[in-house]
Amino acid sequence: MIYAEILAGGKGTRMGNTELPKQFLMLGDKPIFIHTVEQFMLNRRIDKILICCPEAWISYTKDTLKKYIADRSKIVVVKGGASRNDTIMNGLNFIESEYGLNDDDIVLTHDAVRPFLTQRIIDDNIDGAIKYGAVDTVVEAFDTIVHSTDGETITDIPVRSEMYQGQTPQSFNLPLLKNFLASLSEDEKNILTDACKALVIKGTPVHLVRGEVYNMKITTQHDLKVANGLVEGQKI
């Protein structure tokens, strides 16, 4: 089976003083995470969609889904964890307990606040995860990347043609990811907060899937204004 695991556990501290976590803020005429869910709903290859959110927001998430999505038969709301890796693992444990685990199962992990992913990106992630076992969505770095270890002076300026900006989905063979996350120590989980980075450091190749510049993550008020501009532009 092919699962989409939407990570909706962020508190949105960089969004400023808002009443709701950022994934629940309005984008156009519906909450941000609803746009994201709808993109996965459109893809017929996705068998189940898990929305992983804080326990305190599970009821709110379910109520919001009822308001905006008529057919919720493919959607399940799952309790998230204290960290990104813990949240992903909670979703994988739920999948195993409810549906069993097969060697060829695929999971796409995606930020709830990246509502502009496309069907092409979803399909390329599925195909890549089936072929390679682990893929990360990226776009080329258009600006020069400056590396600084102290935040005061330049440590290095990497070759731009070798630099990419990471997006999501990050997609995996499900048993591979589950076994790998289970093998990490608590210290490693705290340091290796990105699953693809952790796999690379531990020696597992992660292949690239090309994303889109507009597959943006809505993190700040400025991001939200830009995103609303994109939504308005889609209506023209």
From TrEMBL:
Keyword annotations from UniProtKB, A to Z: Cell wall biogenesis/degradation, Nucleotidyltransferase, Teichoic acid biosynthesis, Transferase
Catalytic activity annotation: D-ribitol 5-phosphate + CTP + H(+) = CDP-L-ribitol + diphosphate
Binding residues for CTP: L7, A8, G9, G10, G81, A82, S83, R84, N85, D86, T87
Gene Ontology molecular-function annotations: 2-C-methyl-D-erythritol 4-phosphate cytidylyltransferase activity; D-ribitol-5-phosphate cytidylyltransferase activity
Site (Positions ribitol 5-phosphate for the nucleophilic attack): R160, K217
InterPro entries per record: IspD/TarI, IspD/TarI_cytidylyltransf_bact, ISPD_synthase_CS, Nucleotide-diphossugar_trans, TarI
Site (Transition state stabilizer) location in chain: R14, K22
GO biological process, one term: isoprenoid biosynthetic process
EC primary class: transferase
Keyword Cell membrane attributed: no
Enzyme Commission designation: 2.7.7.40
Keyword Membrane included in the entry's annotation: no
Domain of life of the source: Bacteria
Function: Catalyzes the transfer of the cytidylyl group of CTP to D-ribitol 5-phosphate.
Membership in a protein family: Belongs to the IspD/TarI cytidylyltransferase family. TarI subfamily.
PANTHER family named among the record's database cross-references: 2-C-METHYL-D-ERYTHRITOL 4-PHOSPHATE CYTIDYLYLTRANSFERASE, CHLOROPLASTIC, RIBITOL-5-PHOSPHATE CYTIDYLYLTRANSFERASE
Protein name, entry field: Ribitol-5-phosphate cytidylyltransferase
Organism in which the protein naturally occurs: Sharpea azabuensis
Organism ancestry: Bacteria, Bacillati, Bacillota, Erysipelotrichia, Erysipelotrichales
